[in-house]
Thioredoxin domain-containing protein
Amino acid sequence: MGRNLVPQWRLLRRVLHDGRLRTPFYRNYSTFSRSGTNLGSSSSPSSSLSKFLFSSSSSSLRHAPDFHFPSVPFHHCRSLCSASDPSNIILIKSENLLKESLSKAREEALPAIFYFTAAWCGPCRLLAPVIKELSKNYPEVTTYKIDIDQEGLERTLNDLNITSVPTLYFFQDGKEAGQIVGADVAGIKNMMEKIYKK
């Protein structure tokens, strides 16, 4: 029994390594056959493969089967990349970058929003598309997105008194012009219109 499993394992490893076994696109292939023996029906490819691999006849182990899988047309493949995002949201990934961005907003008097969030925060996930849309509507305002769970941000977060998420700080003319804690969509829209509308 153990002797028969070694060649079967090698065969399975070869089939999987070749990359010919594509899960979603195997439905309409013609089943493989050797020596004129049909090994299964096309309705259940996994049972055909398991019958072949784990059959007790030693003759089925002499030759590798011919698999005939259709090639997938290019237009059926899903794109794994997306188009560039026109929103002006900058991800802050370090304490130095956060400090630089804060000083830039204060010293250069640039309009900015500092959006403090966390991956585990449900209201933050609800607010994310709203922030993205608002950043498109106000292209002159730079939005800085800060994940509070990043290492090294503790001291700066304490200095800014960030105690809950989502928290948004609005800067205009080098000063903090407003602050909103929580997922208050109407409040955020009103605050942005009041501060940044020309």
Remarks:
- DSSP finds six helices and seven strands in the chain.
- The chain has a mean pLDDT of 75.
- Residues 2-76 form one domain.
- The longest strand covers residues 175-181.
